[in-house]
Amino acid sequence: MTQVDPNTIDVVAPNFKRRLSGVTSTIVRLVPLQQKAIGIATTGSGLPDDMPHLSMGQLLSLRRNGPSGPRVWHARRNVEMLGGLVLKHLLRKNLKLLFTSASQRQHSGYTKWLMSKMDRVIATSAKGAAYLDHPVQVVHHGINTQDFAPVADKSALRRTLGLPEEAIIIGCFGRIRAQKGTDVFVTAMLDVLKQHPNAVALVMGRATEKYEGFEKDLRAQVKAAGLSDRLLFPAEVPVWEVARWYQALDLYVAPQRWEGFGLTPLEAMSCGVPVVATRVGAFEELVADQTCGLLIDPGEVDQMVTAVTSVLSVEGRLQDWSSAARAHVLAGFALEKEANTLVALYQDLLRG
Predict the structure, then answer these.
(1) Rounded to the nearest 5°, which phi and psi values hold at 294?
(2) How far is it, in rounded angstroms, from Cα 123 to Cα 99?
(3) Pairing of strands 120-123, 95-101
(4) What is the three-class DSSP state of 299?
(5) DSSP letters of 186-218?
(6) What does 147-167 look like in DSSP terms, one character per residue?
(7) Cα dihedral sign for 174, 180, 186, 192?
């Protein structure tokens, strides 16, 4: 890890979970941008070596005050809220406690108690904010619009990836499981591909051991329909290669039955790919319905078939919505906007 001088740090972003998660990815995306504007460091485990970092020893031995007086402790999990309370009340660190809630459900009594001890609470969506007991600020997640951007030569990219150059390609990325709606996507695509002989569908992701049978059944369903050469299951790729697969698509489908926030529609739209998404997570706040995509109810195969077919069948819609999708993300969901909004909130807490 890149060790930093603790006396220059105004904000600490803890990551108290070893396994890669959405929270970890959020910290990794934001901190390099935020450190350009404010003294910020991570602490905990499971983070890249190039992140500005405080060891546990440095954290526990921090001076009571930071360079601006208090420091901001930005927690994103219960265990991190608890850690902030320990540092503040037992070790007497001068901290302002901030919590980001990504959940869209009723919180436990324990979580509510922890949140009541925070100086400020953020929600990542308006839908999530509605589950909280007091007013909060909504700060949507953003996307790196430079990494996730349209490609100049889509045909060349498809050749590189081994995909058909002239086909209409429809994609669904993420874990292969019922919660993610992979079965809904596959069933719908069996119908769509029969209606559109020039279309190909991709199921990109991995099934964990628990869901290997689920994936096997989906593949058997595709084989029985005689569409194994047009409904493809490419192997999961590293995170840094995912953008190229979005860039190769004409249409992206987010078929989730449940989702906390859900970045995949933003990643697709940032690459100039229109989206059909279910009304779960923050998707209704991310996708401009009838402008750069369509919204449908979760678990509804017929709605998905109708939506995808309507996008493909209206002349010029893919091209028009592609441009609108990219513009929509640039205007409202660039990663810099999320980073700058959080930095402004940190500064407000430090002044307070």
Answers:
(1) -135, 145
(2) 9
(3) parallel
(4) coil
(5) HHHHHHHHHH-TTEEEEEES---GGGHHHHHHH
(6) TS---S-HHHHHHHHT--SSS
(7) negative
* CB atoms inside a 10 Å sphere around CB 135: 8
pLDDT higher than 90, residue 240: no
Q: Which residues pair with 172 in a beta bridge?
A: 203
E-only strand ranges, 86-167 = 95-101, 120-123, 137-138
Backbone angles phi, psi at 97, to 5 degrees: -100, 125
User: What tokens appear for 12 in the block?
Assistant: 């600490």
Residue with tokens 């449908």: 296
Q: Tens digits of per-residue pLDDT, 146-163? A: 999 999 999 999 999 999
Q: Is the Cα dihedral 80, 261, 345, 142 positive or negative?
A: positive
Identify the sign of the CA torsion 64, 66, 72, 78: negative
Do the strands 71-75 and 11-15 form a parallel or antiparallel pair, or are they unpaired?
A: parallel
- Taking only the tens place, the pLDDT of each residue in 247-304 is 999 999 999 999 888 899 999 999 999 999 999 989 999 999 999 999 999 999 999 9
Residue 236, classified by CB atoms within 10 Å of its CB into exposed (0-12), middle (13-18) or buried (19+), is middle
Q: d(Cα 225, Cα 71) in Å, to the nearest integer?
A: 60
Answer whether 344's CB lies under 8 Å from 98's CB. no
Q: What is the helix (H) or strand (E) element at residue 10, kind and residue range?
A: none
- Residue 314: both structure tokens together: 């209206």
C-beta of residue 18 within 8 angstroms of C-beta of residue 45? yes
**Closest C-alpha to 40, from 14, 60, 1:** 14
pLDDT at 3: 79
The whole-angstrom separation of Cα 39 and Cα 158 is 42
Please, are residues 101 and 124 in contact by the beta-carbon 8 Å criterion?
A: yes
In three-state secondary structure terms, 19 is coil
Q: Which two tokens stand for residue 102?
A: 């990504």
Instruction: Provide the β-strand partners of residue 254.
Output: 277
CA R_g for the chain: 22
DSSP secondary structure, 247-282, as one string: HT-SEEEE--SS-SS--HHHHHHHTT--EEEES-TT
Q: For the CA atoms of 130, 134, 135, 139, what is the dihedral angle to 10 degrees?
A: -60
